[in-house]
Amino acid sequence: MVNLLPRRTMSEEAQLTDTEDLQERLAEVQTLLARHKLVEELVHRQEGPRHDLVEDMVHKQHLKALEAKLEPMHPADIAYILEALPQDERLIVWGLVEAEHEGEILLEVSDAVRETLIESMARNELVAAAETLDADELADLAPDLPQGVIDDVFLSMSAEEREQLRSAMSYPEDSVGSIMDFDMVTVREDVTLEVVLRYLRRFDELPDHTDQLFVIGRDDQLKGVLPLNILLVNEVEVEVGALMQTDFVEFEPDDFAEEAAKAFERYDLVSAPVVDPEGRLVARVTVNTVVDFIREEAESEQLAQAGLKEEEDIFASVWDSVRNRWAWLAVNLVTAFVASLVIGAFEGSIEKLVALAALMPIVAGIGGNSGNQTITMIVRAIAMGQVQPDAMRRLLRKELGVATINGLIWGGLLGLVAWWLYGSPALGAVMTAAMTLNLLLAATAGVGIPLLRQKFGADPAIGGSVMITALTDSGGFFIFLGLATLFLM
Question: Which of 16, 28, 290, 398 is deepest in the core (most CB within 10 A)?
Fold first, then answer.
């Protein structure tokens, strides 16, 4: 799900552009929380005729100071602080957040943290928070909200907003429809720039990332776009139709969001129109939602490569973390058992030549590193649309060439070291051959795994590094110990 940036204008005091500043704010909040807990514990231990009154006053005093610290902060920065706090402290801070910003903050926090915050809120609080959001933002939050809350919010919306919400929620998460924004400015082609300027002055502020106006006909057909820089430098008597641009990038709601992101990067777009199959303007896509989509895709890819199913709250319960991690750990357990069987099959060779036990982890380790390099490059190229499944043969030839050269150079170097350490040129030759063969295996897996997963409709990134490590470990042990048994025993 794509988290949209909040629309609230940031003051200079609230805007934190320096990571160190944000870390300082986090440290200040943590200090206030620690002080609050310490004083509460001390007051709670004391007894007196007005103990409850004193305890209540102390409680409110420290929470007031914490609330004052949070008040000028941007919702995105509060979201960062919430993610960095243990769950008990997180809920204390969450209870001090201004109600009007709760919806924006829920959009900013990670999915795992959002779940804990929503669980702590009453139904009326959730309804109030959701009602502060636009339809496109609410569509992002809706899957995490109880159905009863969605029903209440839906009843409070206008007919137009309901239709927008239905539309935004009807598209898959990886589509343009899931990241489109309904807040935009449209004009007619037969009006003058003077009329357009008067119309714009009626707004309190223009929608975020408005770099162009959309020119539509009577039936909402998109005719063209009018960039603001063209609007501002031309005579006011000129009609929009004479200046509008008809060569522009547009999307349909069913288009892949990934393709839209590539177009934004390629053409340096700030916004782009979204039209239905009949060419009617329905929404727009803005650079902030595209950046969020790219960031979330990158994070998802990193987690997938490590074998994690989803982003994890670092302060989640032990059981939640176990459930998120167990699947690929189970795969690792199986592959480790296979590797141990391979070693066990060559137990006699290892007993005769102890040097094999010292050298075989090197072969497996270098192979795993090389394989991860290859699979990272291939997955990145797939994500950027540069590689299709039919390119496997060409890419495989190239990576096998790289692996052969690296194997001969680095394997040869390690072979010389093995010869020098153990006085056996034959062992050095086996080391060189095993290294080269394992690098070839790593290259084959690094190209084949992601491309085959893509070909069969699976995510190319999921579990890639786990599978590469398993193959190069078992394969490396088998190759090295097998060659040693054939030529050294």
Answer: 290
